Amino acid sequence: MTASNTPVRNILALAGDGIGQEVMAATRKVMEWFQAQGRARFNVTEGLVGGASYDVHGTPLTDATVKQALAADAVLFGAIGGPKWEQLAYDLRPERGLLRLRKEMGVFANLRPAMVFDALAGASTLKTEVVKGLDIMIVRELLGGVYFNEPRGVETLPNGERRGYNTQTYSTHEILRIGRVAFELARKRSKRVCSVEKSNVMESGLVWREEITKLKAEYPDVELSHMYADNCAMQLVRNPKQFDVIVTDNLFGDLLSDLASMCTGSLGMLQSASLGAKGADGRQAALYEPIHGSAPDIAGKGIANPLAMILSLSMMLRYSFDMGADADLLERAVQNVLSAGVRTGDIAEPGQTPVGTQAMADAVIAELGKLAR
Ligand code: IPM
Ligand code: MG
């Protein structure tokens, strides 16, 4: 019953390793609901990434998969890695597959919201009053800094010692493009940006701070503050609600987003979007993924929390397909399911019997059905 004028969305689904498989399967069911309701038409292609790709192709990401990703309207990504592949050389590790995918797609802006659903405020290890109502957005630069810069490597010094080295640099254009994303997002939120670096120690941080400060002139309606990364880590635990949008570099963003995730109770709740620049034709590369890992300890047991992945789908609807109302609907369904006490093990409180991955997805789908009626 899909309306013939509903555009077909080409999606590359890369489930990856460990629980990536299970949460992807659960999320695909949610996608089928939108499809069956005539709300969307998804053309999903599956591909391999990470250890799953290494096992078949001897590399964590093939050129063919890169090509598919570049051709897709959006990529939905599960998780990668596991003990099985930890002994491999760096270039063959599952993580390299993800890093290369980000680079090839040019997705420089990583949006990592940390939102506390009311029903879960008690699930955080932090006091309920500290996290209740929390809604922050970490904007992480995703293609620069120590993650990608050259030179990098391991060398042997004349005295026989080994030395590992990486390079941290940030140049004007990299800072401005991520800064713009943060200021624009803040405009749609509480209009506050906190820029985070270590300009007290690092030249790259100093240039970061100065360029962001200059950029602020283009956004007179947005309030800008600066914070050192170590202080930001402390403030995120002490009083996270002081923040609205945090903009920071690749490495600090990696650390701070894991930290912020624990304000929400579980890493299993957090979605992310990685976006490229909008082309003249309106196309924008986009990669959606939960921020949790492949959780090898619980992989294959059917108990992983699929909500981070389901919420990543909601970000895809919102940012790639202009389906804001459907994204709202999906987020409301998740909220209601949590309020009704449905919990996977990672977010269950004493007295609550945990449900499995599929049962959680089914509960969300049932709630979608009720809400859409
Ligand atoms: C993340 C992950 C990745 C990163 C790893 C898996 C390469 O920790 O997305 O936060 O460090 O960026
Ligand atoms: Mg990380």
Describe the structure.
- With 373 residues, the chain is of the alpha/beta class.
- It has two domains: 1-114 and 268-373, Isopropylmalate Dehydrogenase, CATH 3.40.718.10; 125-264, Isopropylmalate Dehydrogenase (3-Layer(aba) Sandwich).
- It contains twelve helices and twelve strands.
- Strands 2-1-3-12-11-4-5-10-8-9 form a ten-stranded mixed beta sheet, with helices on both faces. A two-stranded antiparallel ribbon has the order 6-7.
- It is globular, with a radius of gyration of 21 Å.
- Magnesium ion is lined by residues 254, 258.
- The site of magnesium ion has 2 residues, from helix 9.
| Radius of gyration, CA atoms, in whole angstroms | 21 Å
State the total count of DSSP E strands.
12
| Chain-averaged pLDDT | 96
Q: Structural class, from helix and strand content?
A: alpha/beta
Strand content: 15-25%
Question: What's the shape?
Answer: globular
Low-pLDDT ranges: none
User: What's the helix count?
Assistant: 12
Question: What is the rounded distance between the termini?
Answer: 16 Å
Describe the secondary-structure layout.
Layout: E1 8-16, H1 19-36, E2 41-47, H2 51-57, H3 63-71, E3 74-79, H4 94-105, E4 109-115, H5 128-131, E5 135-141, E6 153-156, E7 162-165, H6 172-187, E8 192-197, H7 203-215, E9 223-228, H8 229-238, E10 245-248, H9 250-263, E11 271-278, E12 284-290, H10 307-319, H11 324-339, H12 357-372
Parallel strand pairs: 1-2, 1-3, 3-12, 5-10, 8-9, 8-10
Antiparallel strand pairs: 4-5, 4-11, 6-7, 11-12
